[in-house]
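Narrative of activities, Objective 1.

The group set out to show that a structural description can be obtained from nothing but a protein's sequence at a throughput compatible with the screening campaign. Below is one input-output pair from the validation batch, recorded exactly as produced.
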Amino acid sequence: MIAIEGLVVRYGALEAVAGLDLAVPRGCLFGLLGPNGAGKTTTIACLAGLRAPDAGVVRVDGVAVGDDPAAVRRRVGLVPQHLALYPALTVRQNLSFFGQMHGIAGAALRDRVDFGLALAQLEARADARVSALSGGMARRLNLACGLLHDPPLLILDEPTTGVDAQSRNHIFETVRRLHAEGRTIIYTTHYMEEVEALCEQVAIMDRGRLLASDRLAGLLGGDGTGFTLEAAGPVDADRVQAALAAAGIDARVTPARQTLEQVFLGLTGRGLRDEDTP
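Output recorded for this entry:
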């Protein structure tokens, strides 16, 4: 669904994305991770046609973004980290506005507005101004607005920031349902447990470069040094198994799985990141 080849984006002297190559299979729920300043937001902007790259090619569903931006916009639903809503308008008016922006009109628009209200579970608040909604309600509406044109690719940028537990659970259930319908979903977040709970494949980038891309199970494979016992130094499972057997202990030794946070910190480092770059 997504093919990025040699993507380069510069902001003055800063190279926000530095020759990125990335492929996302069709129908995949794909986690895109990176510290502050890794280039995730810039990459997403290029995918959605909001930023022209300085070099490289970005293809969505076989269409080069630079060749036919309108065709790409029809294929992409972008749900940004910062709420893309109009506070002075009602919930229904926001849905109607964004539907019209995608060329939907008449009975089809009414159907899609009803779809959005149901998806966000905001039917009872349809005529409330967005400024009166809770953070969780606004996040759910933000997601619904990105789906009005029924795109095959959905990009979710920090979709659970600042939400209550119930809204977070609702967003999770919605993401799983949309994925089960066959959509490709790009999910970016700083919450590693969300990626572990949702995503099939994960890419980790830093300073505009790809550090790792693999299925989640591949990234979390045991590293061969940790077990359910403490060792003075690195040991392998066979040595531990042999030592236990020699002591007359019948036990099966299995290498411990790493957490995604451990993998992430191992690749990107543990130092503080305060950059506010794209």
